[in-house]
From TrEMBL:
Keywords on record: Cell membrane, Membrane, Transmembrane, Transmembrane helix
Membrane-protein topology: Multi-pass membrane protein
GO-annotated cellular components: plasma membrane
PANTHER family named among the record's database cross-references: SUCCINATE TRANSPORTER SUBUNIT YJJP-RELATED, UPF0442 PROTEIN YJJB-RELATED
Sequence intervals crossing the membrane: 122-155, 167-189, 195-214, 226-249
UniProt GO molecular function: transmembrane transporter activity
Record-annotated Threonine/serine exporter-like N-terminal domain positions: 12-248
Subcellular location(s) of the protein: Cell membrane
Protein name: Threonine/serine exporter
Family, similarity comment: Belongs to the ThrE exporter (TC 2.A.79) family.
Source organism, top-level taxon: Bacteria
Biological process, per Gene Ontology: succinate transport
UniProt entry tagged with the keyword Transmembrane helix: yes
Amino acid sequence: MTRAEWEALVEYTLNIGRQMMECGAEAWRAENTMARIFRAYDLEVLDAHVIATQAAVTVKTPTGEHYTSTCMILPDKTGTDLGRLETLNAAARHICDAPPPLEELPLCLKRPVARWSWRELLGYLLGAGAFAIFFGGVFLDGVAAGAIGGVVYLMEQVRRVHQQNKIIYTVVACFLAGLLAQACVGIGFGVNLDLIMIGDIMLFIPGLVIVNGVREFFYADILTGLYRLVEALLIAGAIAAGYAVSLMMGGSL
């Protein structure tokens, strides 16, 4: 390969690791994926290091040339997208099984634009409604929680388009969801305010972030684990703040 082709391969592989982290993958998984791709092209991996906010690689070609590249992982672009993560994993497995020429590398790295998905919307509706009923609410509570869940989905789509700060978004979204829950009970479209709120709160809980943060500790990625656990705590605090303010304002009204 020419120097330009080696550099393109390094950038391509680094991009895979970055997007995996943005989709919610563990740091060790992104590092392992990048290292496997490099070895598939007979590159010696001198370093493949990923933390929550940065990825860096250094490789050595069979002729002794070194290539190093780094990239930032922006917090406002990170989230949980398991479908996208599976696409990236499948592309990496394909490359490792039969390394193609650079011009034939899977065209999976083009970042998908934010789009409306009926399946995601249905998940928000059913998820919020089912949790409200599961915790003891009546059917009408589930319907109310599901309707508010649909509004939460719309707010989440707006956040994705404008790449808003996740903590601020969570406070505002929880505040509005709390007001909507109180309005539903006030007009008779719901019975148990607390259960409606619980159903919608479950949409904001950073469960995967907490689990991945703990897993990072087991793989000795202490810095990334701390980052994710702190992020989860901040989101939990934002959830509490948003609903608390909505309850205080709703009570005064």
